[in-house]
Each structure stands twice: as structure tokens, then as C-alpha cells.
Amino acid sequence: MSRILVVAGTDSSGGAGLSRDVAMAQSLGCSVAPVVTAVTVQTNSALIATQPIPPQIIADQVTAAFDPAGQIPRAIKIGMIGTPEAARSLAQALPAQVPIVLDPVLKSSSGGDLMSLEALTPLLPKVTVLTPNLEESARLASTCHYPQEPPELAELKIRAQIILATGVAAVLIKGGHGQGTHSTDHLFTADSHQMFSAPRLPISKRGTGCSLATALACALAQGASVTEACAQAKAQMTLWLSNPG
């Protein structure tokens, strides 16, 4: 069984965060080494309180997870980080040569801010795949606003170019919050663009960002290329969203 490291916050509702990451990973045949960055008090409709974990404790958790005496994680998924100080500590602790998937969780799906753009900066040059949704991609690219209408491909390419300039190897801009009959995710690298599309389902679940990033990390841990991992994660999300459970 492949193992992934998951860096994220807890969610007392169980709808997102580490709980969702572990559930998705186990369904895909991966075990999880958890690194807790924050404890949140959430319901399905509200973020009530957040308690960040001290940066050094976060770094120490990462170091312990990569103890050679244990099973070494083959990929890393990062969700909620918390503070810029935590991000800097985490960036120093993360090992080289291990693929990293970063879900830029700027807001909770239950409402409320979870992370600032500043907190992401130290980590971006280490990231293999960044997975923003449409709104997050606009904020990360510092566009002046998030339009109500879905952006055209040309706009997505501009956002991707700006994000890639921060040092990330690839950016997957997710289309789940868009419109139309199909949900299309766009994978951009410095010299390529690929699309992954699936029928848009009339279903709303919390934890979709966590789930896709974790599925992507699991595929990378199991030896898939970035393109293959994105395709597998998209298919897994469609399967999960189709399940009423």
C-alpha cells in the first residue's frame, strides 16, 4: 500500500480537511501520514473558530513522518496551512524529490477565510501541482475581480502564466464552480495545456477540493505521471459525487 503525507487542518463536521483526505486516500488504496496544521470548529454551514498549531510542531510532524525506520510517503498533499510562519517552517521541513500537490484553501466551504495568499508564497517553488478553483485562480493571479461569468480560455491561460511564474511546476485550474453542462479542469505547464472534462452533476458536497487534491497525490504516489494523475483524480471525483453517501 502506497503512503502519502497529508498536511491539513481538522474539521469537526467531518465534511472537509483531514477527515475527507483520509477517507479519499483509503478508498484509493493509500495510507496517510497526517500533519495537523490547525484545529477548526466547523459545521456544514459555518466556520466558528480556528486554532493554529505552532509552526515548529508542524515541521516536527513532517520530520517524524519521513523517519527512515517507517514507511516513507511517496507524495505529499497540502491543504490548509494557517499562517505565513507555518508555511515558512513547512517549506524548510519538506523533503526534496517528493511530488507535492497543493490545494490553496483560501476559504472554507462552510464559510470564512482559512488562509492568506501570503501564506502560500514560501511553498510555491516546491509544488508539483497547484489545484485552485476558478475563484482561487483569480486571486492567486491578482486579477482585479472574480467575474460572475465563467472565464474564457484566454483568461485562464493568463492566470496560469502568472501562477506558473511563482515557481510551481503545473497548475490545474478546476472548473467545478463554473457553469455549463460539463465541468472542465485545465492543466497548464510552462509549455502545455490539457483539459479533463466530465458531465456536471446536480450535486453539491463539501470537501471537493480536498478530495481531488488527495486523489491526485495518491495517483502520483502510485507512479502515475502528472497528466495521468489529473485524469484519474477527475474520474474519481465524478464517481464520488455520483455516490449519494
Describe the structure in your own words.
By secondary structure, the chain is α/β, with parallel strands linked by helices. Helices cover 35% and strands 22% of the residues. The protein has helices at residues 17-27, 55-65, 84-93, 117-120, 134-140, 153-164, 208-221, 226-242; strands at 2-11, 30-42, 47-52, 75-78, 100-102, 129-130, 171-173, 182-188, 193-199. The longest helix has 17 residues, at 226-242. The protein starts with a strand and ends with a helix. The relative contact order is 0.16.
Rg result: 17 Å
Low-confidence stretches: none
What spatial form do the alpha-carbon principal axes imply? globular
The biggest beta sheet is recorded as: 6 strands, mixed
Widest sheet, order of strands: 3-2-1-4-5-6
Kindly report how far apart the N and C termini lie.
25 Å
Query: Can you count the beta strands?
Result: 9
Mean pLDDT over the full residue set: 89
SSE class: alpha/beta
By DSSP (H or I, 4+ residues per run), the number of helices equals 8
Percentage of helical residues?
25-40%
H/E series: EHEEHEHEHEHHEEEHH
Fraction of residues in β-strands? 15-25%
Give me a quick take on this structure.
It contains 8 helices and 9 strands.
Could you give the topology of this structure?
Elements: E1 2-11, H1 17-27, E2 30-42, E3 47-52, H2 55-65, E4 75-78, H3 84-93, E5 100-102, H4 117-120, E6 129-130, H5 134-140, H6 153-164, E7 171-173, E8 182-188, E9 193-199, H7 208-221, H8 226-242
Parallel strand pairs: 1-2, 1-4, 4-5, 5-6
Antiparallel strand pairs: 2-3, 7-8, 8-9
Helix pairs in contact: 1-7, 2-3, 7-8
